[in-house]
Amino acid sequence: MEKTRPLWANPLQFVFACISYSVGLGNVWRFPYLCQMYGGGVASVVVSFFLSMYYNVINAWGFWYLFHSFQDPLPWSVCPLNSNHTGYDEECEKATSTQYFWYRKTLNISPSIQENGGVQWEPALCLILAWLMVYLCILRGTESTGKVVYFTALLPYCVLIIYLVRGLTLHGATNGLAYMFTPKLEQLANPRAWINAATQIFFSLGLGFGSLIAFASYNEPSNNCQRHAIIVSLINSFTSIFASIVTFSIYGFKATFNYENCLRKVILLLTNSFDLEDGFLTASNLEQVKTYLASTYPSKYSEVFPQIKNCSLESELNTAVQGTGLAFIVYTEAIKNMEVSQLWSVLYFFMLLMLGIGSMLGNTAAILTPLTDSKVISSHLPKEAISGLLCLISCAVGLVFTMDSGNYWFDIFNDYAATLSLLLIVLVETIAICYVYGLRRFESDLQSMTGRSLNWYWKVMWAGVSPLLIVSLFIFYLSDYFLMGTLQYQAWDASQGQLVTKDYPTYVLVFIGLLVASSTMCIPLVALGTFVMRHQRGDTAPLA
Amino acid sequence: MLWPLFFLVTAIHAELCQPADAENAFKVRLSIKTALGDKAYAWDTNEEYLFKAMVAFSMRKVPNRETTEISHVLLCNVTQRVSFWFVVTDPSKKYTLPAMEVQSAIRMSRNRINNAFFLNDQTLEFLKIPSTLAPPSDPAVPIWIIVFGVIFCIVIVAITVLILSGIRQHRRNNDGPSEVEDAEDKCETTITVENGIPCDPLDTKDGCLNDAFVTEGERLTPL
């Protein structure tokens, strides 16, 4: 008796799974960054495998911050004291306390990628916990994943709404929002803006990872996939914009806070140097008083002048950070200045974890579905054991990212493991379905499954516009890689308390090449292999 | 006749309390408006008297200096900021006390002095006297490990429960189909009895699998 394929309990679960998967960390950190700067079969699995290896490290960091949010005061809001208790730790003084907590306490980062250090036990523990969580959710297949995704899809929205209300009522939030909505027209003409937007959508919707295919394979055939496709895309875009509003109000708050701090320091400096009455200098009369002092006490003013910083709200808003920096440095810096910061911190990192785990479920589904579908493996091992083995292997490899230089390797995976290969995979998928399998055949399949005919919009898009767009993106990316020359990375310098640019050593460049090649070469290799096998068998059956 | 003496005394006072030059003088800076806002008090001679009293009080806590009087503390160069210099003289009022003594005395009673004026280390500054920063409280077991341990245990328990129930279900499923695959006549599940007449066993939900036809079917209709 054949075991029926597990199905989603109701179509809502499928939609939520897709939303939960696509509404990931990318919406929270990548899209707002891009807004600020300018007014993506065997290959999929390989890319998904790379992704799952390094993505869960983010969840590990999320757990780390979540556990540390239960302290008063928050550990990233104060600098630790130095050895003789007369002042603060030197590295923390040069950088900010949030940066210190991220680079020193969380990552314990080494000065360059060559210095490996050992595995830190604290992040390693958090990574193991993160993988156990993921294992718990995928243990039972769609049965358990289906229930978990209700949670992982809806809870982040609740938290985002709470944060929206809190963010909009913060002092200085309007500055951030005004900044977000004023387009920088000259940037719209920059092709890089459009490339980054396209990459973001690819990543965000999780195309080419096979996760959507995996999720969809658990659907009933009569499922109205056209409607679901539109729903998921719209919700994903809406969420990105929604998250941007929240992010920018928090940006505005942080920038205004820092700007006012800067002004306060300048006022204090002037008051102390010229023995002016306390409270006489305010932000409004600062400029007038400065000119007055420059004229009346020129010599003294010229002594003090080099120390006076030019405070500007614009420059504070311009400090854009993306990716892990935004989530863990900028947000925590804004949170530590809010009242009841522990509550906001816990809420925020809980949401981040929900998003991350939702995306991880998609990734692992992409890998597990082909594995459990293949008769070879699933006849020997039950599904729990396969998932367990996958989690174990990924966890073991992920321990690399908990070493001292782990963050540098993480950035490599983040930048190179998926970008180019994704484009290629999606391109091949589109061409395969439209031209090799035949658009007409696909259309008739859809009609027989859903009972609805295909709208001309889809046909035009799939056959013409999308492949063109993807090919042009591909060309842009390649030309960008070749024009940049040798690749560089940002390393944390403890003595200066800031990031410095360094070149990658040769063995790292070789590794990057292998990484990109292994995912992109899979498609032609497998195609070649299949072609050779069929040629040997002399079978004339069409390609499935 | 007493006037020359008076002038002499004030002259000596003025010499003793000299800003910047005297090595035993300390500059003090107060930011009352910043600290208190609307509730700020004005700095007048009465407040200066209180300050002298607090300094004398701190000096009295030092061994050998228990006889310091308020008149031994001299203030000078009071500006609008509010800032001024002060020195502490010895009982004979001839020379000023060494800076180290005054510094250690002030450091010990810093909290009392701050509280007397409703200020803190940042708003009542003694330049050249560093404040001792309070070390952060370090609990014996870091809090994050406790939270981690709790969540870790919950997850492990949940995984074990799920795996065990999965194994049990698997075993039950294995026992079920293995009965069905035995001889055909063993495929009766529950025979419903209506009016004393047993209903047709083939009406049951799953039906019986006739092994004779299964393999034939697979050979003739490949997918």
UniProtKB/TrEMBL annotation, chain B:
Keyword set for this entry? Answer: Cell membrane, Glycoprotein, Membrane, Phosphoprotein, Signal, Transmembrane, Transmembrane helix
Q: Name one GO molecular function term.
A: transporter activator activity
Ranges where the Collectrin-like domain occurs = 22-223
Q: Where are the transmembrane segments?
A: 141-164
- Stored Pfam families: Collectrin
Primary location recorded for the protein, binned into one broad class = membrane
Q: Where is the signal peptide?
A: 1-22
**Membrane topology term:** Single-pass type I membrane protein
The UniProt entry, under InterPro entries, shows: Collectrin, Collectrin_dom
What cellular component GO annotations does this protein have? brush border membrane; cytoplasm; extracellular exosome
Gene Ontology biological process terms in this record: calcium-ion regulated exocytosis; insulin secretion involved in cellular response to glucose stimulus; positive regulation of L-proline import across plasma membrane; SNARE complex assembly
- Record's subcellular location: Cell membrane
Q: What is this protein called?
A: Collectrin, amino acid transport regulator
- Source organism: Loxodonta africana
Lineage, uppermost ranks: Eukaryota, Metazoa, Chordata, Craniata, Vertebrata
Tell me the gene name.
CLTRN
